[in-house]
Here is the input.
Amino acid sequence: MSGEEFVPLSLTPLLIGTFAAIACALPGNFLVLRKQALIGDAISHVVLPGIVVAFLLTGAISTWPMMLGAAGAAVVAVIMIEAIRRLGQIESGAAMGVVFTTMFAAGVLLLEQTDTSTVHLDVEHALYGNLESLIWLDAVGWASVWDIQALAGLPPELPRIALTLAGVCLFTWLFWRPLKISTFDEGFARTIGIRTGALGMALVIVAAIAAVAAFDAVGSIIVIAMFICPPAAARMMTNRLETQIAWSIVFAVISAVAGYVLAGYGPLWLGAVDAVSAAGMIATVSGLILACTAIWGPCRTRTGAPGST
Amino acid sequence: MLELAADQGVSIPEDSLDDSPLAIRGLTVSYGQKPAVFSVDMTVQPGAMTAIIGPNGAGKSTLLKAALGIVSPLSGQVTVFGKPLDKQRERIAYVPQRASVDWDFPARVIDVVLMGLSGQLGLLGRVRFRHISRAMDCLHRVGMRDFADRQIGQLSGGQQQRVFLARALAQDAELYLLDEPFAGVDAATEKAIIAVLKDLKTAGKTVVAVHHDLATITDYFDHVFLINTRKVAEGPVAEAFTAETLQSAYGGRLATAQIDQISRALG
Here is the structure.
């Protein structure tokens, strides 16, 4: 494919998909190890009341108020989950279950009880996003990457998700050591002065922000898949956290690129005429990678499990 | 009942807190309705090896965790070498119960020992050769040098316990607090651990361990602290570890035959 065709039509969706995948996979590593991986699923449900409230307050379907509403709802949910977990001394999965079903129900109720139900809040759009539509029509070829005027026409989702990814990377780099120690041994972490409660909260809030930004660009299917599949697959490739993070990024990139290409061209290769949803295909590829590592990964056996040596 | 404990905690005069490696006054901890530890005072002797003993559910681990700030007490004061805990973190090393962590965590033995150096390394400090060689020295002291590159989940229980001890050694502390270091370990590990702890004592360090095997108390420790939610007895083994104190800590749960055996061992 030539630059004239690739840059306007495929470059931006590829970048957005890749950035979204990495932004979710990075915190996903810690969430999976902390057995809090379900938080991605929880966040994608709890944003509904936030979006509805944002719409009620502003009366318009515009991006920023809705994203802020979604992020606000995600943070409220995260705080509620932590509070229920710590005060009730119950497992985090149970706390998530209570919070996200309640908030999702509240969102549906709000939607039905107010006149927002007449507004078209598209379910399919929320689930699969619309990655293919995030094109860059001002670009004419690779030269446009250096053209200020053309860059102004970039889909706004790209700078948003790029900024989010930068924030996620900064957080992971800055708090790498405390995150690693407190994920492995919370009691020990506290004795050396790590504020494990605040750090755990910060991690889920970062995950929530990544989820909302990705949700806006590519839909919730990718969010749920990328929090779990690349980190879980990476865990089966290595026994070191540093290497696991690297593998999870590799898998996230492969899923995004291969998923996008397969969605666009796969059906044509098979003789069909239409393309399929890129977000759905990206999630599918990440699931296939997870399946492959579960069968062939070098570190897939739980040590101490029956049958392992 | 809990209000009463709070009163007691407040009424302790400041000057009763001395420079002891670990001084606890009026400590009450509760997980629910019933207190797990009730109004406990403890003064750890410097340079000694103290065993915390008591029946299951007597609050031994809770006492240790509250002393370290891992669980928040309802009331009470903890000082470490005469100062509040927060200012003395680098003088304490803690060895948690082995079962308290997930050993499937993706880390090698050396990675876990290096966690003991995080105070030195700070937030972003790079791990350099001297850190690695210090971690290797600590592994050598517990006889685990050859296992540095193993994934921690591949170790036996005793080996995991020794890795935890090596991490504590890497902290180079003055007060070592260990939660059941001998629980479920093989005889070789038990010997290795007690040798390291006795070396620490010889070097003038203070060791406090939650312990469950009454038969080895006289061999391993020189002070005991008996607890059954409340403090039962505290002092040198010869004075505080007697048939009477054991009976009052364990009640009917300790067979009379066992007490006879221990009193005979004590002469």
About this structure: Chain A touches chain B at residues 33, 89, 174-175, 177-178, 180-181, 183-185, 187-188, 190-193, 235, 238-241, 243-244, 299, 302-304 (CB under 8 Å). Confidence is low (pLDDT under 50) at residues 304-309 of chain A. The radius of gyration of chain A is 20 Å. The first helix of chain A runs from residue 3 to 33.
